[in-house]
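Note to self: keep these together.
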Amino acid sequence: MIIHMANTQITKYICSECGHVTTTKTGKCPMCGSWGTFEAVNESPPAKSSARTTPRVQVISSLDVKAPARLSTGIGELDRVLGGGLVPGGVALIGGQPGIGKSTLLLQAAGSVAKNYASPVLYISGEESDAQVALRASRIHTASENLYLYSGSNLEDALSNLDGKNFAFFVLDSVQAMTAENSSGWPGTLTQVREVAQRVIDCAREKNIPAVLIGHITKEGKIAGPMMLEHMVDTVLTFSGEGYSSYRMLRAVKNRYGSTDELGIFEMSEEGLIPVTDKSGLYWNREDSTVSGVAMTIALEGNTPLAAEVQTLATKTPYPYPKRTSRGIELNRFQLLTAVIDRRCGIPTNSHDLYINVAGGLSLQDPSADLCACAAIGSALRDAHLEAGTCWLGEVGLAGEVRPVTRIDLRLKEAARLGFRQAVVSSREQVKFGGIRLVRVSHVDEALAGLIMRRRSSSR
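Structure:
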């Protein structure tokens, strides 16, 4: 008697917010805490093959590998974050808030490549009509006879336009709006997003042309869809910005062909996104006058040095518990540095409310800003201004010691370019750059005692 075994399917439940997989459906995701986000996915078990092949083993040193020739987008900030441009056969994914400028940036890049290389570029829009994309292209002056547009949500029809022409690259806007044939679910579901991404990757590698995907993000700021989506592509970029500012920041979260330390800054205007070349000017007003409680530092965003102005205000408090308010520096870090000033430098802080702010809305995560914050706090408490033309570079420990920072030569070069006359650094710092005067200190108290000038009241 012959028994025919049925091809059973395996049902999994995947969270649409974080990509967590479970075999039982629950109301709340145990990973991200979201409610009602699990979607059922039916998968057939892989067929067992009787034929086994032995993979060919090669010596790595015997392989002749050349760096791929990159395609420049014509936008310097975008090329730098990508690692030099787009890689043939590579797939990049860019995510960001709605209206942040993802479509505008890639439409500018597509128009620039179509114009500079005289090669066709395909822009696939699954969310906007022909007229909407054409109006944006006209407004930002990217319309070109080599820039082709497809509006629709059918992925197979969109990719079929790549046949017969030697396209330079193509853009898919967005991966959540397209529908792949022979795949179940509505556009944006987990199975559809995964299938759409896989077919785009296969197409890009088969034709050896770059592809860029646009992706939506969740309320937590992560790219929507399965976490596998970020593992499938070669590069993941995030495009961010504050609602009150016209500036946009582009960072690489993942990059198989370059560094993830680069930062690209753009300014949104009526004619599109304009690359910002002098980034330090964004957060520094270059004011020469000195005020108590104000200190300067050179922070690093990836490999990009930025001049940051730290401001502190100290006021007498009538309450037994003084207030501590921080913006741009983590509050716990601010309280820690305040305790160091009180205990290690002998400057009382319990009778003052203290407020600290980083000018321009910049958020400092770099520990090299510790010494600058301590200088600003000490200056505000003593009501005495710091010496003009000085930047402060050092990490501060609980013992009050000043520690070395990373990339000190890069920071000093930027400080010298901006016109700073001297820099306060750790006495243990190994410096090769000699274009600026160095003041070496080993303790915070030593730094404040030597560089805080006379009180404002005595100079009136």
